[in-house]
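$ ./design --mode recover --in tokens.txt
reading tokens...
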């Protein structure tokens, strides 16, 4: 349904998106996850034809975004981070206005507006002015305008930013209800968002894909991993290198205050070996504890720049 190939976007010397490639199948709900500034919004704007890339290509349902922009836009409903609503209009009149802009046939316009209102549960506020609605309802109106032309693809950019916990739960339920009827890309920096709504995750960092897998796949990948926290009296120059050379160790970061964090593959007997390395180095072992790595840990690990990791490991 969506094919992104070698997508690049430069802002002067800065690469916001760097040779990004991924695909989304029909009916999939994909979470596009990354920290602020990772290139998520830029990618969404390129996919929807809002801005051109510096290089690369995007196709939606077989149509090139830049060679056949009208055909692509017929198939996409887009909710930007700030919903494009007119506060002085009522919900119903605004949705009719948007439907006409999107070229919905006059004979189908009223029916499609009704369906969009029903899907987003806006019936009770349809005659109210948008500026008088809560932020949660305005967000629903934003999703409704994306739905009103009954597009095959929905692009939702940070759909729950600024909402209270109840409104967040409502919007997440709405996205789950839309799954299967539409192909959805959900762009967010909020980890629970993708856990609650998505089947597959693409983690992006500094314009590049850091990981791509299903939730189950990431969980299996994480199931054997463990992190060992070590605290010592005297941080020796040699101890980080000794720990890194231990079989089963995937990464070592030295923090301040004599703290060392060690990511391992969770293999049997690795923790005693690490304790032995620290004691042999003469660091004075004060504390050693092990914990399983969760999705948040993996996300932080993947989206922490190499520069920061190297800085943390400097003794």
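writing sequence...
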């Amino acid at each position: 349904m969506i094919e992104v190939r070698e997508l690049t976007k430069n802002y002067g010397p800065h690469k916001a998106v760097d040779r990004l490639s991924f695909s989304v199948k029909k009916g999939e709900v994909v979470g596009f996850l990354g920290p602020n500034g990772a290139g998520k919004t830029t990618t969404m704007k390129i996919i929807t034809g809002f801005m051109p890339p510096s290089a690369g290509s995007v196709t939606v349902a077989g149509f090139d975004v830049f060679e056949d922009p009208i055909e692509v836009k017929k198939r996409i409903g887009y909710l930007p981070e700030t919903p494009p609503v007119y506060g002085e209009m009522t919900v119903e009149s605004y949705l009719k206005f948007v439907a006409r802009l999107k070229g919905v046939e006059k004979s189908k316009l009223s029916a499609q507006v009704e369906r969009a209102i029903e899907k987003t549960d806006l019936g009770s506020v349809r005659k109210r002015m948008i500026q008088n609605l809560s932020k949660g309802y305005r967000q629903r109106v934003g999703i409704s305008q994306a739905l009103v032309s009954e597009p095959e693809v929905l692009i939702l950019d940070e759909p729950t930013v600024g909402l209270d916990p109840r409104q967040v739960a409502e919007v997440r339920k709405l996205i789950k209800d839309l799954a299967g009827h539409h192909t959805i890309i959900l762009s967010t920096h909020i980890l629970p968002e993708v856990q609650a709504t998505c089947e597959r995750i693409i983690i992006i960092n500094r314009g590049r894909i850091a990981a791509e897998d299903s939730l189950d796949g990431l969980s299996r990948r994480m199931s054997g991993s463990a992190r060992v926290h070590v605290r010592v009296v005297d941080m020796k120059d040699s101890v980080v290198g000794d720990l890194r050379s231990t079989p089963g160790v995937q990464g070592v970061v030295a923090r301040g205050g004599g703290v060392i964090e060690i990511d391992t593959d969770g293999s049997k007997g690795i923790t005693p070996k690490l304790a032995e390395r620290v004691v042999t180095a003469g660091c004075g072992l004060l504390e050693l504890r092990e914990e399983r790595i969760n999705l948040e840990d993996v996300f932080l690990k993947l989206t922490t720049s190499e520069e920061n990791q190297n800085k943390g490991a400097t003794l």
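exit 0
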